[in-house]
Specification:
Length: 124
């Protein structure tokens, strides 16, 4: 789902109208730099590179592309977002508001164990 959203919001708008073999390393490097300058988090920029690299890897395996322009990119750094945790009062308020809701158990797990949304969703 994360890769799908990455393609939908970042890669397709930039390269979606181009043939696979027309996308160059220089174009992708410039795109990565643009994302960084636009203020996207380092993790988002890294995710764009990873998603593009995996897609081209699959395309090359199928013979649809002969090079991977997402390889060997220089990732700019310095846009790491600081994590802001809830205060104890905010956490209590959230749990109180969620009482009886179907998400209550998920929220309790997230707050008490420090789990991320994807980790809670993966539980059975």
């Amino acid at each position: 789902e994360t890769y799908r959203q990455t393609f939908l919001y970042h890669i397709f708008p930039k390269f979606g109208d181009m043939k696979l073999n027309k996308v160059t390393h220089r174009m992708v490097q410039a795109f990565i730099t643009e994302l960084h300058k636009a203020g996207y988090a380092d993790k988002t920029v890294s995710l764009v590179r990873a998603a593009g690299r995996q897609a081209y890897k699959a395309a090359m395996k199928e013979g649809a592309a002969y090079h991977n322009p997402f390889n060997d990119l220089t990732l700019p750094t310095g846009n790491a977002k600081a994590v802001q945790s809830l205060t104890v009062e905010q956490a209590r308020g959230l749990l109180h508001a969620a009482r009886g809701d179907r998400m209550e158990v998920a929220l309790r797990l997230m707050l008490s164990l420090g789990l991320r949304r994807g980790e809670v969703c993966g539980l059975s």
